[in-house]
Amino acid sequence: xxxxxxxxxxxxxxxxxxxxxxxxxxxxxxxxxxxxxxxxxxxxxxxxxxxxxxxxxxxxxxxxxxxxxxxxxxxxxxxxxxxxxxxxxxxxxxxxxxxxxxxxxxxxxxxxxxxxxxxxxxxxxxxxxxxxxxxxxxxxxxxxxxxxxxxxxxxxxxxxxxxxxxxxxxxxxxxxxxxxxxxxxxxxxxxxxxxxxxxxxxxxxxxxxxxxxxxxxxxxxxxxxxxxxxxxxxxxxxxxxxxxxxxxxxxxxxxxxxxxxxxxxxxxxxxxxxxxxxxxxxxxxxxxxxxxxxxxxxxxxxxxxxxxxxxxxxxxxxxxxxxxxxxxxxxxxxxxxxxxxxxxxxxxxxxxxxxxxxxxxxxxxxxxxxxxxxxxxxxxxxxxxxxxxxxxxxxxxxxxxxxxxxxxxxxxxxxxxxxxxx
Length: 422
Fold this sequence. Notes:
Helix content is 48%, strand content 15%. It has 15 helices and eleven strands. It has helices spanning 7-19, 38-52, 59-66, 74-81, 90-119, 123-145, 150-162, 173-179, 198-211, 225-237, 241-246, 251-264, 278-292, 315-333, 362-366, and strands at residues 167-168, 182-183, 187-192, 216-220, 269-272, 297-301, 337-342, 369-376, 380-391, 397-404, 409-412. A nine-stranded mixed β-sheet has the order 5-4-6-7-3-8-9-10-11, with helices on both faces. A two-stranded antiparallel sheet has the order 1-2. Helix 1 (7-19) packs across helix 5 and helix 10 (225-237) packs across helix 12 (251-264).
């Protein structure tokens, strides 16, 4: 266990703080919990509290306070003062303390998941536990990286300017002009009532991404693989989707089907219809990345159909958990995640609003971008209005798309600027 803590480094940080009248306490942005040794941790807390209260931390002022700390006291303070701490070297020792704390946090998370796995029998429960542990370890690692100074932070920003966010183009140039495309690490929530076209949006987005060399994963909680592939064949071959379902195909249809099949089988596409929980989807995505390389797009259809390991939670709490998991997945996998969602019944017959997102306001809060779909089946059944209702990184508005349900296609109309939502 000695490689998981360094008491000497902890004491050096404390000695420098006492010797500098507290001026070095902020170096490394350490927390009391970063200290492994209990007396060291308690003394660090005392020093922070006294600085905040504008109280002196010279040895004579500290002695009465340290007398009440188990393991500290006169002898402990005398040994601390023997350390010839140089303020300019504090950063080096603070980094050691922080790194050891990060290692302990990661070890604790791994031990927790090991214990959970021993107690669980269900594979899905194990995936949930593993995903929770991986997020804990990721948080610990990010905590380790969070302590860099302004110079390092600015360097990261400048590096980002030289290497801008990676975008995957949508199938619709008008939309790309407004939002830039699907950006890695972001969560896109697309909401609609049943039958409006939200699943088809996901299918079109997946095909377009794959056709441009971006590996795409469609996690279907609603439709079977067969249904999804029939939609892709209709789209790629411009084959009547109704005929594919009920029969009556002619020779020309079969030729188009063969052409579509040949295209689809060579695309970097992955489809799963046996995933129900966020952990299962994330685990499958991680497997694809491990075996085939980076993902360019992840589509989940649809959020409210996912199941939870916490049946005692309300449905709103469960959907909020799904939303957080998908946002974390976008960041940890560095992939744009399109989460299709169903809207409340109240949205029938009118343009929807973000408040119509069914069963959870967390979807609206967690999403980087929310798009709502509207189609007037009576007056303009072939016009699909896509409203950008929320956009953290750009503008809002709406674009009209050409809905071709017969061929499972959604295409751009004549190029035009994003219109304002009425």
